[in-house]
Amino acid sequence: MKSITISIKKIIVFGIFLFLLLSIYLIWGKLTRPYGVQKVSFIPSKSVNFTKRKLNFAIYRASTGVNQDIIYHFHGRNLDHTIWNDDTYYTSLIQSYWQKSNINPPTVVLISYGPEWLLTHKNSRVESGLMDDFVSNLPLIESKIGKPKNRILLGESMGGLNVLILGLSHPELFSRVASLCPGVYLDSPFSDFNEIKAAIKRTGADPKIALGIYKIARTYASNEEEWKVISPIHLIKRANIHYPELYLSCGLYDKYGNFEGTEALANVAISKGVKTHWHPLYGGHCAIDITSLADFLIIK
Fold first, then answer.
1. Which of 31, 230, 204 shows the shortest CA–CA distance to 127?
2. Dihedral sign (CA 102, 105, 107, 111)
3. 227: which residues sit within 8 A by CB, 6+ positions away?
4. Chain centroid offset of residue 32 CA
5. What is the chain's alpha carbon radius of gyration, rounded to the nearest angstrom?
6. What is the rounded CA–CA span in Å between residue 225 and residue 230?
7. Long-range CB contacts for residues 11-15, cutoff 8 Å, separation at least 24
8. How far apart are CA 269 and CA 171, in angstroms?
9. How confident is the model at residue 1 (pLDDT cuts 50, 70, 90)?
10. Which are the contacts of 68, defined by CB distance < 8 A and separation ≥ 6?
11. Where would a tag sit more exposed on the chain, N or C end, judged by fewer CB atoms within 10 A?
12. What is the pLDDT of residue 51?
């Protein structure tokens, strides 16, 4: 059997070559990655934080003054109750728009029950019951602010789903609901695998994200009947002209596959006589039209 020998010189040359290749890769990566992030120029709101058991909330008041309304803001997945003043987030663009327009905005109360959560009535799931908890804590929250003239709901992504569940379950409590890129689907998380697979293909959703969303939904509902109690597609069917005014928006290429369900929800709401502002956008997840949204949040 013929033996193969490699000289020390060749090994050294090959090692140097690999080192240079790796160095070029690292240097190129450093040179071509973003050097910074675009930030918004605005005056941050003054804030105070509170906690009651699982509920965390922060009250934000614009330094230029506020009107008599309250916006209850429900954040997206993996965010928290401190996001309102983030100068890289859409909420700072809203504040900048109000400030440039010399508008006294509502007081904003940002609500959080953790990185991931859904508002549901108490059901068979241990994690359920957060909607009941929030509604029962409204008097406590408003004792620190004063009773509002109007309550307005605002949420994006997971928060967009939460404000729809809350606003459509308790329409008597709220005047307006702004739901951005909400997790609304025509199919149930309890549909069979082939139906879910077809929905993922039909909507262009990222399979890993979509299956993760279905998993979260199953954490807060254990069967189809419990899901229907909180599904916006089912809740909107009982709506009428007295329901809160809706603002709905979603990007056509939303990687969560939310466009189809949000558009269907808007169409049903309109057919039920609910005053509805539907903003289909050419973009991805949580593409937002700041101007129309900021105007919608001001009740004149």
1. 230
2. negative
3. 188, 189, 190, 217, 221
4. 30
5. 24
6. 9
7. none
8. 13
9. very low
10. 106, 148, 149, 150
11. N
12. 96
CB atoms within 10 A of CB 265: 26
CB-facing half-sphere around the CA of 32: CA atoms within 13 A? 6
Q: How far apart are CA 196 and CA 280, in angstroms?
A: 23
Q: What is the pLDDT of residue 135?
A: 97
Q: Which two tokens stand for residue 221?
A: 């509902």
Q: Which long-range contacts (CB under 8 A, 24 or more apart) does 43-51 make?
A: 43/95, 43/99, 44/85, 44/87, 44/92, 44/95, 45/84, 45/85, 45/95, 45/108, 47/82, 47/84, 47/85, 48/144, 49/81, 49/82, 50/141, 50/144
Which of 154, 177, 178, 157 is closest to 167 using CA atoms? 177
Q: How far apart are CA 285 and CA 300, in angstroms?
A: 30
Statement: residue 2 has pLDDT above 60 = no
Contact criterion met (CB below 8 Å) for 270 and 40? no
The answer to whether 276 and 270 have CB atoms below 8 angstroms apart is yes
How many other CB atoms sit within 10 Å of the CB of residue 245? 18
Considering the chain, what percentage of its residues have pLDDT values greater than 90? 81
Is residue 251 within 8 A of residue 181, CB to CB? The reply is: yes
| End-to-end CA gap in the chain | 92
Question: Residue written as tokens 């997206």?
Answer: 76
CA 120/CA 61 separation, integer angstroms: 29
Instruction: Give the pLDDT confidence score for residue 203 in this predicted structure.
Output: 94
- The amino acid occupying position 157 is S
**Region 213-228: what's the mean pLDDT?**
91
